[in-house]
Write a structure and sequence with these properties.
With 401 residues, the chain is an alpha+beta fold. The protein has 3 domains: 102 residues, Acyl-CoA dehydrogenase/oxidase, N-terminal domain (Butyryl-Coa Dehydrogenase, subunit A, domain 1), CATH 1.10.540.10; 109 residues, Butyryl-CoA Dehydrogenase, subunit A, domain 2 (Beta Barrel); 152 residues, Butyryl-CoA Dehydrogenase, subunit A, domain 3, CATH 1.20.140.10. It has 10 helices and 8 strands. It has a 4-stranded mixed beta sheet, with helices on one face. β4 and β5 form a beta hairpin. The longest helix has 35 residues. The relative contact order is 0.12.
Length: 401
Amino acid sequence: MTTTTETPTTEAPPAAVLTEAMLRRFDERAPQYDRENRFFFEDLEELKASGYLDLALPAEYGGPGLSLAEIGRHQQRLAYHAPATAIAVNMHFYWTGVAADLFRAGDRSMAWVLERAAAGDVFAAGHGESGNDVPLFLSTTSAERVDGGWAFTGRKVFGSLSPVWDWLGVHAMDTSDPADPRIVHGFLRRDADGYRIEPTWDVMGMRATASDDIVLDHAFIADSDVVLVCPAGFAGAGGFQVSVFAWAMLGFAAVYAGIAHRAFDLTVERVHQRNSIALTRSMAHHPEVQHGIAEMRLALETVDAHLQRAGDDWSQGVDHGGLWPLKILTAKHVVVSEAWKVVDTAMDLSGGAGIFRRNRMEQLFRDARLGRIHPGNSALTHELVAKFSLGIDPDAQPRWG
């Protein structure tokens, strides 16, 4: 019997970066973190010590300079064993990957991010806002110009890596000129004044990420920690925003692909063990079970092909021009949707045992469901894909004002 335990990859990291022994430990701890709603401190320490968090850093900053596609394959392997650990670590790659892409393109605006990451700092993402379905491009958080920087006031949700980040990437809107609103992208230092982390993270899945809310009350971000000030909406979109899209969304997709592969393998193993009083052989020989397995495998083939194509195109610099946002949104949507079908079918084929907390399938089911609410959600994805396809300016009817 062939399984997909080791996701195919052509760029295996150095042995010390993500060993089989580490993966076994992560696998053992994942259910404990989930059950106790506890942050993955032990996993993170191992990953930091091994150099895993440095995979995106260019050679100039002491890293191997892996591409988005290469890191995605490693993340899928990690997610197979510990989904929440992988999704949280993606928030760090979210920034080191963007900084590395810009650096290779000759843009040094985020070179300091690479320097701080090389020194061991952890970066996290703080773009989520209640009532804002267009993160990066609009914001419910206000940015007020003050001496030497900006004061941010608002509330961020899904604030990844809450217990450990050193720098939180945030954005806010400057409306001092109502006719020309601007988005300010910067990084909040852990030791800054004017913010608090509010424990809110008791959720259905991905519990070990500890993605608590961050309340900003005139939190100061110095000019030196601001990487971009640009027009609000898609009018301000450029290499920075598209790169964030790519690293965030294709990174999310890689994690949910890993979950789907794990669910498939567990199901294949399980149906060979399941019996029925009405059958003389295992449930693996039941026609409808075989149909379900086939549907899962067909979905996995779609997941792998789409994810690989999108990641490789980005990493190889394929010129899709203004269609890159469409390509990225589509890839993320297709991958997480098909991955969810795999896990949902896996729950059906696992039988009643799959609903017990002690069963790993139950955790995978809850974790996988969150992929469909990770940005961009289905509504935003369909809206933007349609507008890009029809040639309609996404800002034709501004969402502000």
